[in-house]
Amino acid sequence: MTTEIARVQGALDSAGERARSLQTVYVYEAPVRLWHWVNALLIVALCVTGYFIGSPLPSVQGEASASFQMGYIRFVHFAAGQTLIVFFLLRVYWAFVGNKYSRQIFWLPLANKTWWWGMLYEFKWYAFLVKDPKKYIGHNPLAHVAMFSFMVFLVLMMVSGMALYSEGQGIDSWQYRLFGFMFSLFTSQTLHTLHHLGMWAIVVFVVVHIYAAVREDILSRQSMISSIVSGERLFRDDLPD
Amino acid sequence: MGAATETFYEVIRRQGITRRSFIKFCSLTATSLGLGPIGTSQIAQALETKPRVPVIWMHGLECTCCSESFIRSAHPLVKDAILSMISLDYDDTIMAAAGHQAEAILQETRQKYKGQYILAVEGNPPLNEDGMFCIDGGRPFVEKLKEMADDSMAVIAWGACASWGCVQAAKPNPTQATPIDKVIKNKPIIKVPGCPPIAEVMTGVVTFVTTFGRLPELDRQGRPKMFYSQRIHDKCYRRPHFDAGQFVEEWDDDAARKGFCLYKMGCKGPTTYNACSTVRWNGGVSFPIQSGHGCIGCSEDGFWDQGPFYERLTNINQFGVEANADKIGATAAGVVGAAIAAHAAVTTVRNLSRRKEVPNGNGGSNGKSNGTTNGTSA
């Protein structure tokens, strides 16, 4: 028999049964969490304003000088887009100075066999073929690919967005000098269409992203939603597999 | 052969144009080219002293709208003055000579003015079937084009055809009509796109080249910066209505009568680089948007495949159906949303059935989570 002291160590439930030791790992540092929420807000603002730039609201009546509706919508879009870029650059900086998890979404360990195996396992998990998911301190391999793809995608949206913005700034502007090469690849109209399609791809990503986060928070063996706020990943069991 | 030793000025005076009119023309040209105060005298000086530049004007697959536009140029003023400025030695649609005499001029110009003449190309060569879809003077136009380009000083690509391909290069492009910069690789090419280009833009480019003996500054796409560096939208007189959010919603609505922005009616002004909203057409009388019709983007690459003309969002035909970005995007989001709902439903059902199997489960959703140990085992 163990002593009474030993019996009250750890987390107990109402029946006095003790939970197995819980592990917590600090994964997402404050700048990473801040970036996530800033991105969330900006992306919502960009999608809404972007949609209304493509398909404007019903016509405003009265004097043209009395309204600046389209102007404000475009202003919000441009401001949000450039803020997104600034925060992205800060995030890239943080990938160099932050902890090892801060670098994860910017590269893929394609040579790592375990990683590929983990990806296959995650597919099976989402296809209901295995009973339990694996535990990961950072992103699981499937989420890793999703996040990496999203970063690539975000860069494409930022580059095409800046190219479109440079059209208004003029072909002598620094924006055109940096991003005008996009018009060697596409015409202005085509680039508008691609940028618009990109918006919908982001909407699809957001839907999948939120579903996966909520689902994993409920079903997996680790925390998801609270980690967005605290940065800490809590593991619900200490089983070795 | 035109009198090659004559200067522009001599020709102009010979044709009864006063010196006063000549100086007016120089001022107008200098202004339209955006030159400084000294530009007028430089142009006058050049026209008085330089021999006329021989121009060969060739026609491939085209509709002659470029020529029609060109001959209506008003500033530089001009029917006869501008046609005298250059020595237009060959232009098969308007020249007096025909047949072998006409073709002989080409060879003569090539030999006599090797590396000195300007090749102006209206239309483009079709490359399919060895160029058999455009036979000019008994042989494929593409051969003639390459031959004349080899000995030219520079090449001017008139219009959307020569610059981008235009309607004959629209999908599926059965004749493989090809813009001339894909065929001529060894000469500088100025693209003057438009269907047709604005008359004053055409004569402006010719005036610049003949006056300064060099090409104007070109943009990334090879168009003269002075006419193609801004979009129609940037200088549109209806722009305040765009910024205010005032749009024409139907062709016959009140907003159309009030002259609101045509953005929702598919105006391509925001994506079209041309000088229509500043130079305008027919001697500055009007341009499409001023006449109440949106821009169709005729000076842009592939504008026939960027339709519809009357909707803001371009149709995407990649998937075998006609849909724009919003339709495709909303459909994709809907399909993914439905898939997620189905996935969530399956997850819930499976989870509930698993709980039944493990009646003492602690509310955890899978077999391994938060397993409690028996207190006695610690």
TrEMBL record, chain A:
Q: Which SUPFAM superfamilies match?
A: Transmembrane di-heme cytochromes (SSF81342)
Q: Which BP terms from GO are recorded?
A: respiratory electron transport chain
Record carries keyword Nucleotide-binding: no
> Where are the membrane-spanning stretches?
34-54, 75-94, 142-165, 197-214
Membrane topology per record: Multi-pass membrane protein
Q: What keywords tag this UniProt record? A: Cell membrane, Electron transport, Heme, Iron, Membrane, Metal-binding, Transmembrane, Transmembrane helix, Transport
MF (Gene Ontology): electron transfer activity; heme binding; iron ion binding
User: Which locations, inside or outside the cell, does it occupy?
Assistant: Cell membrane
UniProt family annotation: Belongs to the HupC/HyaC/HydC family.
- This one is known as Probable Ni/Fe-hydrogenase B-type cytochrome subunit
Gene (name only): cybH
Automatic annotation (TrEMBL), chain B:
User: Could you tell me which residue ranges the Cytochrome-c3 hydrogenase C-terminal domain spans?
Assistant: 228-309
A single Gene Ontology MF term assigned here is:
electron transfer activity
* Residues annotated for [3Fe-4S] cluster binding in this entry: C276, C295, C298
Reactions catalysed, semicolon-separated, are: H2 + A = AH2
Give residue spans, biased composition: Low complexity.
367-378
Reported EC number(s) for this entry are: 1.12.99.6
Q: Which Gene3D superfamilies match?
A: Cytochrome-c3 hydrogenase, C-terminal domain, NADH:ubiquinone oxidoreductase-like, 20kDa subunit
The listed locations are: Cell membrane
Q: Which domain of life is it from?
A: Bacteria
Keyword entries, A-Z: 3Fe-4S, 4Fe-4S, Cell membrane, Iron, Iron-sulfur, Membrane, Metal-binding, Oxidoreductase, Signal
Binding-site list for [4Fe-4S] cluster 2: H233, C236, C261, C267
Q: Which GO terms describe its cellular component?
A: [Ni-Fe] hydrogenase complex; ferredoxin hydrogenase complex; plasma membrane
Per the entry, which co-factors are needed?
A: [4Fe-4S] cluster; [3Fe-4S] cluster
Cell wall biogenesis/degradation is among the record's keywords: no
* Disordered, as annotated region: 352-378
Query: Domain NADH:ubiquinone oxidoreductase-like 20kDa subunit spans what residues?
Result: 63-206
Q: How does it assemble?
A: Heterodimer of a large and a small subunit.
Question: Could you say which protein family the record assigns here?
Answer: Belongs to the [NiFe]/[NiFeSe] hydrogenase small subunit family.
Name of this chain's protein: Uptake hydrogenase small subunit
Q: What is the lineage of its organism?
A: Bacteria, Pseudomonadati, Pseudomonadota, Alphaproteobacteria, Hyphomicrobiales
